[in-house]
Amino acid sequence: MLRLATAGSVDDGKSTLIGRLLYDTKSVLADQLSAVERATAARGGHATAVDLALLTDGLRAEREQGITIDVAYRYFSTARRAFVLADTPGHVQYTRNMVTGASTAELAIVLVDARKGVLEQTRRHAALTALLGVPHVVLAVNKMDLVGFDEATFAAIAREFTDYARVLGLPAVHAVPLSALDGDNVVLRSGRTPWYDGPTLLDLLERVPVGRDAGAEPLRLPVQYVIRPRTPEHPDYRGYAGKLASGVVRVGDELRVLPSGRTSRVVGIDTFDGPLQAAEAPRSVTVRLADDLDVARGDVLAPAGEDVRTGQDLVGTVCWLTERRSVAGARVLVRTGTRTVRALLREVDARLDVDTLTVERWDPVDTVRTIDATDTSSDAAPRSLGLNAIGRVRVRLAEPVVLDDYATHRRTGGFLLVDPTDGGTLAAGMVGPTLLDRLVPVRSDERDDDWLAGAGI
């Protein structure tokens, strides 16, 4: 199964492209197609025409405005592979939705309108793709029919985007010229691009390597639940249930319980289908250990011989997801894996300018100082993060947790900052070095102009 996400500027044709994929792969039910045909006619279209964007733009506001607002997930399959596709918004206002939609993707399709070329929002979404560590990128140059399928136009756009991707550290980019409206090079090869000899978009999606070599990754099993039935059949049963985030667990393995550091040996692996001698990610299992250790929800089982970093000082990059600005010294909850810990947001010391690919760095601030989190005026403290902003935070945790770097442990290196008063999500983050640490740092000049506009987000 391949998880993929679309990204790009407004009106580049993301929803239409997804609708075309669903339509041409025969993944649309007859009643769904009839409903879309009626909706197309109600909007003034031809009775026999189909506005394929309506297959994914399901919210009423999306259909009225003709834009994608929330992340829409669609599922389809071919003879070769199953797909989970996230249609993410292109508008700058919904950058946070793109972050959540692409956080689990293994491939990103970045769309560009052939008439407009690479735009600011295209660069922004490419930077977010690099920040989230998406391993595969496809550049879809859409609306080629509106430029007469000109080879020079396609080559110039592909070259500009590839150069930008190289600076970001993105993997090799494969560019495809297509028309989502007419279906050129989406599922079937187009006769209107005789100069293009590469694969169609669907061919790329079916052939790109997916999944991970579970045996090559270190074991991580976040404990979700401790099973103690205490029934006559199982009076002394004690199992630790969870979904394997990475790696392989085998009967006889020596494991360490983190963050306590106690060790024991695996004596049994139970599943819904029965006992196993070995299990690999992403399977859900219940592990039995030889010793009765103090293991609770939120603990992580890892190989005993591996040096896994734990601690109470978390440094990570976050995308701020709420209109309330970050407050230095605020009390928050940190959710990492299956663990939730009380914490203090000590400081925000950097912010990413996506337009210039520079990082604005600030000197440490007094975390005791309070900042009005509801103030949205331009003269508020510039060392805070607002909606959609990306920056680096330092958080002090009330108790130690596993601190895997996101760059090497994508499944366990992420975290959330949560408001303890109402449970709302403040930010989604990544532990350890990220794109921010590779870009050019600049010192803040503490000017009084609008700092959110200066963030370029």
UniProtKB/TrEMBL annotation:
Keyword Metal-binding listed: no
The EC number on file is: 2.7.7.4
| Alphabetized CDD domains for the sequence | CysN_ATPS, CysN_NodQ_II, CysN_NoDQ_III
Record-level Gene Ontology MF annotations: ATP binding; GTP binding; GTPase activity; sulfate adenylyltransferase (ATP) activity
Which key words tag this protein in UniProt?
ATP-binding, GTP-binding, Nucleotide-binding, Nucleotidyltransferase, Transferase
Q: NCBIfam families under this entry? A: CysN
Signal sequence region: none
Question: Does Transferase appear among the keywords?
Answer: yes
Where do the Tr-type G domain residues begin and end?
1-219
Q: Which InterPro entries match?
A: CysN_GTP-bd, CysN_II, CysN_NoDQ_III, G_TR_CS, GTP-eEF1A_C, P-loop_NTPase, SO4_adenylTrfase_lsu, T_Tr_GTP-bd_dom
Q: What is the top-level taxon of the source organism?
A: Bacteria
BP GO annotations: sulfur compound metabolic process
Q: What class of enzyme is it?
A: transferase
Q: Name one Pfam family in it.
A: GTP_EFTU
**Species assigned in the record:** Cellulomonas shaoxiangyii
* Name under which the protein is recorded: sulfate adenylyltransferase
